[in-house]
Each structure stands twice: as C-alpha cells, then as structure tokens.
Amino acid sequence: MKLPAGRLTDGVAAITFVAFLLLTFSGQVDNVAIVAGFIPARIGDPALLDGMAAVPVWLTPLSCTLVHANWLHVGFNLLMLVFCGRQVEHVLEKGATLLLYVVGAYGATFAQWAVDPGSTNPMVGASGAISAVMATYALLYSQQKVSRLGPLSASTVRLLWLAGGWIVLQVMIGIATSGGLEGLGRIAVAAHIGGFLVGLALTRSLLRWRFRKRQQPQS
Length: 219
Prior knowledge:
Layout: H1 7-26, H2 29-36, H3 41-44, H4 60-63, H5 71-115, H6 127-141, H7 154-178, H8 189-210, H9 212-215
Helix pairs in contact: 1-5, 5-6, 5-8, 6-8, 7-8
C-alpha cells in the first residue's frame, strides 16, 4: 500500500525524531523530561519548578510531544503518525491536520490531569496527539457498515463504538504492560483516551472547514 504524500505529517515526524536524537545522544532525556514534560501538579502549583529553566506549563502539552523515553517509544509513535497522518492530511490538508494534532495534544494532557491532578510524574511522548490523528483516520477510512440504533444515528453509533473500543484497548494495554491495575498509572492511558476522543469530536468540524469553499454558491 502506497501512502499519499504528507508534508506536514513528515515535517512533524522529522522534528520529533531530531529532538529525540539530540536528547538521546546528549544524555539529557531525563532532565528535559522534567522541564519540558507535562506534569499535572504544575497546573495547581505553577511554582513547582521555580528555579529551573522549565517550559511554561501552558506550552508543555506541545513540548512533551518532542520528548521520548527510548527507541521503541519514538519508533512506534512515529510509525503510527506517518501511517495515519499522511492519509488524514490527504483529506484534511495541512492546516486542519496541524490543528487536529495540536488540539489532540492539549486534550490528551487535560485528560491526564483530570485523572491525577496531583501527579508530579512527567508525561512525555506524542502518543496523545497521535491518538487524535488515529481517531480521525478511523472515521475517514472505516469500511465497517454501521446501522442506526434506536434514536442514535449511524454516525453516532460509529463514534460510540470507536470510543468504547479504544478505551477498552488502552486499559487492556495499560494493564498488560504495567503488571496489573496497581501499575496502570505508569502508562499515560488517560492521555491516549483523551487524544482519541478529541479526534472523534473534531473530525466532522474539520471536514466542514476543509471543504467550506466548495460549499459556497457561485454568482
């Protein structure tokens, strides 16, 4: 399967990978994770990192996407970004795809904060933002036919199925990779879910924005 071109997607992936290389080979991953990662407790305590050259807390949902723990972490994230992102960009084009990625990053960190607002553990990685792109990809390219269910339209049923399936999948992955429910917080499950829900919520509006010019009557 040949993927369509996606300059925005490729650019985001390249910047993310270069940032990973610089941090990895300079041995600064752990240090930068603290000052540029998203720390939920900073929302309630902005002075938490006073005295450190920390990224402003309102920018950390974006800066944390440039920090990855290891090769597997960055490799899997960028694989999913390029595969899904190029196909989403093919439909939405650059502006809407970038908006989706950015809002997805903020939605992911908001969900992580909502689940554990007092956590001082830095959240790093682009998986939350990428989850938003994956949600839009799932809606745009889904081949499964869905019927309406009572008062719910077919499109609403599809949204609910995708949201429910993603939530169950993320919880199962979190449990499997963290050794049980006690260690579930080691994986940013809430961020993955939050980003995905943002993608589901934004897709229709982004499609309208993308094709708004074609809908305008010509005189």
